Amino acid sequence: MPTVKKTKIVATLGPATSKKEVLRSMIDAGVDVFRINFSHADYEDVKERVNMIRELNAEMETNTSILADLQGPKLRVGVMAGDVVVSPDDEITFVTGKPFEGNAERVYMNYKEFPRDVKAGERILLDDGKLMFEVVKTNGEDEVLAKVIQGGPLKSKKGVNLPNTNISLPALTPKDIKDAEFAISLEVDWIALSFVRFSQDLIDLQNIINKHSEHKIPIIAKIEKPEAVENIDKIVAYCDGLMVARGDLGVEVPAQEVPLIQKQLVLRAKKARIPVIIATQMMETMITSLTPTRAEVNDVANSVMDGADAVMLSGETSVGNYPVQVIEKMSSILESVEGSDLIHVPHDPPHIRTKRFITKSICYHAATMANDIKAKAISTLTNSGYTAFQISAWRPSAHILVFTSNRRILTQLNLLWGVKAFYYDKFVSTDDTVDDVNRIAFNKGYLQVGDMIISLAAMPIKDKGMVNTLRVSEIESGDI
């Protein structure tokens, strides 16, 4: 029987996952998507890793997906001279311009516009909020004087968050544009954009993709700024998926507000019928330990219960000691909770009559009908992958089997909850095609004699138009 896990696992590549055999074991253990973090990426290394994943897909007959994650405008302090510790009420000057070695009085800041954007009274958070400063004054050019509110060790190259400041930096920095062009040249399956604040950020990335690629590469908006939460409706209209990036989000907004924001974002994604990934510190303990904490197990399980399509691992697989075991552990948590009757992902039937209304309606009714008649599988023929997104969003208990002649989307669809995609290029008459697809599903172990299957297709099949037909059949021994 094929794997039963429907929630997808995204694993970040890094030094711990540089060997092909480790990647193979991770795919076996349940990885669906590999994430390339462009904050720490060497192009040659990335190219090698992408080739390994594609070789493994060919060898293992899998469709493991590749997600390129752009760094975005990450603010950092410079290198410090030795061990520097700051104490409450100390004063320190953040200086832009030419980099220099910092000390307890003066520290380099890599963000040129900082003195112009910041105002007296605003907060500066450093090292995931471990250090906190308040702006005393700025000269508007290259120096900002701040008072220490919460002290501690001031370490080199640590990230800076400005939760109250309206930053003038675009979400796509020159580094991101270069990284995006490189990722597009590798034909990655998804691109994630960090620190999205406005829909324009996504439009800018979309324009870069359109300029450099003939194919659509779907975009994931990473939500980690308070402005993004406020603008979520406009952002959702211009992206193909969301990521709840709880690391920076938990620094930018009070940490205690993140759980409700997570639920709010998942609901918003479900309403838009786009996938949502929950990320950061899910199994953090397993970077160095073979056992996760009870709280981490709960966190992963609750993310599934909220309706997440995918859960993501960062340090656990990029630099952790147990990259394979953490996947096995996560898979077992997902499998044990995702079939529960306690999970209610809200479903509103489609009612806005766009040109795809018929397709949406058929997908919705296929999912609800599959649950009513206890169908084992829903199969769909697709050229764009659109029906896969729709059916996945309705969360049927049946297998979602997607057949396509478009190799480009085979791996893209691997991020979607419950979706299993297969290459299929024999578009003959409808009855023959449906019988053929049923046979493949049976041979791969998704169906048995006596099972019901719902088949969706676009008639006439050869035109590869929008889905307009739903057929219910029972698998009989003579068919197989």
Structure notes:
The protein is built from 16 helices and 22 strands. With 480 residues, it is of the alpha/beta class. The strands form four sheets. An eight-stranded parallel β-barrel has the order 1-2-3-13-14-15-16-17, surrounded by seven helices. A seven-stranded mixed β-sheet has the order 4-12-8-9-10-6-7. The protein has a five-stranded mixed β-sheet with strand order 20-19-18-21-22, with helices on both faces. β1, α1 (20-29) and β2 form a beta-alpha-beta unit. The longest helix is centred in the N-terminal third of the chain and has 18 residues, at 43-60. It is elongated and about 80 Å long. The two termini are 17 Å apart.
Estimate what percentage of residues fall within beta strands. Answer: 15-25%
Give the strand tally: 22
How much helicity do the residues have? 25-40%
Task: Note the total helix count.
Answer: 16
What would you report as the Rg, rounded to the nearest angstrom?
24 Å
> What structural class results from the helix and strand content?
alpha/beta
Shape: elongated
Low-confidence stretches: none
Average pLDDT for all residues: 93
Strand order of the largest sheet: 1-2-3-13-14-15-16-17
- End-to-end Cα distance: 17 Å
Largest sheet, in brief, is:
8 strands, parallel, barrel
